[in-house]
Design a protein that fits this description.
The chain is α/β, with parallel strands linked by helices. The protein is built from eleven helices and nine strands.
Length: about 300
């Protein structure tokens, strides 16, 4: 089954790569209709997530957000595939960085940093293009796929412009490997943790929410300054990215503080453009273990 899935993905990437953007939007509109109207892909999950996150919004507003999310979701699925075959120049036109120079003082001091991103906007184009916009080595920390053949193929495309990758289980090893070169460690911080007892629980979008504890732990152990990455969709197929410092001296803050800072910043980002977050993710499927202390 795995070789079949990898073969299908390879050909899908090639096929979508040939489609011009105007054709991609037509395909996306069709995909949106199928996902929303015919299949109702995770519609109950999306509705419940939005209702609980925005209890102040009327039912009609929630329905509008659902429709807007499906359109964004269809766009992101196809854009992410097409991004694997885009040229550097086209991607730079469509995915612009407002202040990459924020990392320059650190690079000149040969100091590494941690960047916390999220499933907001087009995060896949971000990991592809970031190495071309900063002088640091860029290391993306990812969650491994079960299909190792497919993972190897996708990672080979993601690394074509200089991105380095490591799976989550080997993050500490990567810190040692890259200790002698200025590196930006990129982590997607809004994934649901599998280790609930060590998760950091935060009030996020009006709900008790578990966050990965690893990003907080990594920052406090290394002392690397932490930055937040915010992606803004300007129009269909065009994005702009800005960076801001989240915690300049992580070793001076208490456990869980970086998680709280990240959650607050992410919530503010989501509230500005709710449809651009990944609402189909079962973010609140688990409850806080009774033995877990509040952070």
């Amino acid at each position: 089954m795995y070789p079949v899935g990898a073969f299908f993905t390879r050909n899908l990437v090639r096929l979508v790569g040939y489609v011009p953007f105007w054709g991609l939007w037509l395909l996306s509109d069709l995909l949106c209709f199928v996902l929303l109207r015919l299949i109702g892909y995770r519609k109950k999950v999306i509705l419940e997530n939005l209702r609980k996150s925005f209890p102040e919004k009327a039912a009609v507003e929630i329905r509008q957000l659902v429709a807007q999310f499906y359109r964004h979701f269809a766009d992101i699925l196809l854009e992410s595939i097409k991004g694997l075959t885009l040229s550097k120049s086209v991607l730079q036109q469509r995915f612009k960085y407002r202040n990459p120079e924020i990392f320059q003082p650190l690079f000149e001091k040969e100091q590494s940093a941690i960047m916390l991103a999220s499933h907001f906007g087009n995060w896949e184009w971000g990991v592809l293009s970031l190495p071309q916009n900063v002088q640091h080595t860029v290391l993306g920390v990812y969650k491994p796929l079960k299909n190792k053949v497919l993972e190897k193929y996708l990672n080979s495309l993601r690394k074509q412009w200089g991105l380095h990758l490591t799976d989550m289980a080997h993050t500490s090893r990567a810190v040692v490997t890259y200790k002698d070169q200025p590196t930006i460690f990129v982590l997607i911080g809004d994934q649901t943790p599998s280790d609930m007892r060590n998760a950091h629980w935060v009030n996020f979008l009006n709900q008790d929410t578990p966050f990965l504890h690893g990003m907080d732990k990594l920052a406090r152990q290394t002392g690397y300054p932490v930055f937040y990455c915010e992606i803004e969709r300007m129009k269909r197929g065009y994005y702009e990215v800005s960076f801001s410092e989240l915690c300049p001296v992580p070793k001076t803050v208490a456990e869980g503080e970086i998680t709280r800072l990240y959650a607050a910043r992410l919530e503010a980002t989501i509230r500005k453009s709710p449809a651009d977050w990944l609402w189909s993710h079962r973010r609140w499927k688990r409850k806080r273990p009774l033995a877990n202390p509040s952070v």
